[in-house]
Fold this sequence. Notes:
CATH superfamily: Dihydropteroate synthase-like
Number of strands: 10
Strand order of the largest sheet: 3-4-5-6-7-8-9-10
Shape: globular
Number of helices: 10
Order of helices and strands: EEEHEHEHEHEHEHHEHHEH
CATH class: Alpha Beta
Distance between the termini: 23 Å
Mean pLDDT: 92
Largest sheet: 8 strands, parallel, barrel
Structural class: alpha/beta
Number of domains: 1
CATH architecture: Alpha-Beta Barrel
CATH topology: TIM Barrel
Strand content: 5-15%
Amino acid sequence: MNEHIKLPGGAALDFSGRPLVMGIVNCTEDSFFPGSHNPSAEAAVDRALKEVEAGADIIDFGGESTRPGSAYVSAEEEIRRLIPVIRGFRRQCPAPLSVDTRKLAVARAVLEAGADIINDISALEDDPGIGPLCAEWKAPVVLMHKKGVPTDMQQKPYYEDVVGEVTAYLAEAADRALGFGIPREHIILDPGIGFGKRIADNLDLMANLSAIRGLGYRVLMGLSRKGTIGELTGREVGMRLAGTIAANAVCLMEGADIIRVHDVAEAVDLVKVYAAITARKGA
């Protein structure tokens, strides 16, 4: 795979040295982690700039919470929340910028405002027009697996073989993206930890992430402070940093290329240590 991926804004993703850290910046008050809330566009921009200073390789803005039980947000409202933040950030920083959306109108608006990557939790199913749009803009796309919709996805999800089923779904999603003209190196896969999955399902996916990595695409893991970490540790969301680091370390060993996190400085330390140790293999 190409180690350097050029982005629409002129920056690039460089996978040659170590896995990348994606910093979460929520432009909504509905996120499951209150510590990530930003009450204004100015606060969101400030948080993003601090995450870049802490070492984030990518900033991921979101204008719609997709936590379990969350409500749908209109494209108009999502655009209202996101565009001032993207423009404010772009005036001060050229760092790679991702936007978490599943709506074509939002994807078009944020790319025009300066975004580089579309992070689509529906894997181009909710609005397939995002596929041709990303191909036109030469923008990478994150394709995530989920079962159901955020409103009800945690109501008794069930799998016979979660690793096999999620891997097959992501292979089909990647083929769909290729069919829209998105090049292979611009496709990033996400197994969707916590999106319509039981605790055992999440653990199986993390322990066997190499199966998804074996499809030949970059893999992103988004498990920061999620419910599975809380169930395993007995910790409330504000106390789940150590558990998150442990889970991300395992995912890096299983082949994750990007980890999406709330706590950037700690995640950057993790990947630096991980990269230094793995570089000594066979030395």
